[in-house]
Amino acid sequence: MRTQLTELLAGRSFWHRADPRWKMGCFLLAALPAAGLTRLSAVSAGLMLAAMALASLRLPWSWWRDRLFAVGGLLLLLWLLLPWSHPGTAINLGPIGVSEAGLHMAALLSARWLLILGLIVLFLTTSPFERYLQAALACGCPSQLVHLGLLSYRYAHLFAEELNHRRIALRLRGFRNQMSRHAYRTIGQVAGSILVRGHDRAERVAQAMQCRGFQGRVPMLTPFESQWRDLVMTLAVLLGLALVLVLEWR
């Protein structure tokens, strides 16, 4: 999974080459209003603009297929529940009557969900997460919070791999996860051992950082540099946001 993500981050699109500081600001400008849109026309316009931006990334279809399949199940649940459970004027589809307001609500929530998902994908697949943390630090975010996020992101993958190794070892020894006292005891022991190993690893990492002269700041080997493309990106996001808000408030 991390290898595939590394390949996506290595793209050369306009969004990949933008400064993470400007990109983070654009994401906040677009994501916060998108979560509160109430008109289907505004959400649809935002979704079309996000789709155009995502198309420029040229992400492989296999990557989209796996994620849209998971999201499609949740959206299908909305379409199965809201048209029949939401109060409102009924529309007769043959022998079945569905709520017009329920259909509108299902369409609105689906489009808004896809819009926010598209913005997150555009944000996370164009720059490494640790680069965004460095951008947050450069923009004045508290260093303790940035360091906590950086270390958590770094070692969460290690603990996930260690948990996967434990799971494989248990399976090879004939363990089956079921509702029994033995299974609960085994899971508790595995969770406890991972927590203990995590504490020991944190102590060793802290000592290693102190031995290397860590003074509370992580030096950036690649400094940030604003260019003309960052201004163009910000203006494009502001124009798209203005269009969406006009459709929302008209």
Q: How would you sum up the global shape?
A: flat
**Number of DSSP helices?**
9
* Distance between the first and last residues' Cα: 44 Å
Total strand count, please? 2
Q: SSE string, helix = H, strand = E?
A: HHHHEEHHHHH
CA radius of gyration is 23 Å
Structural class: mainly alpha
Structural features, described:
- The protein has a two-stranded antiparallel ribbon with strand order 1-2.
- The model has no long low-confidence stretch (mean pLDDT 81).
- The protein is flat.
- The chain starts with a helix and ends with a helix.
- It contains nine helices and two strands; from the N terminus they run H-H-H-H-E-E-H-H-H-H-H.
- The chain has two domains: 20-131 and 228-249, no CATH class; 136-211, no CATH class.
- The longest helix is centred in the C-terminal third of the chain and has 31 residues, at 181-211.
- Helices cover 73% and strands 3% of the residues.
- With 250 residues, it is mostly helical.
- It has helices at residues 2-9, 20-34, 40-55, 61-85, 100-124, 129-138, 143-172, 181-211, 228-249, and strands at residues 90-93, 96-99.
- Helix 3 (40-55) packs parallel to helix 5 (100-124), helix 3 runs antiparallel to helix 9 and helix 6 (129-138) runs antiparallel to helix 7.
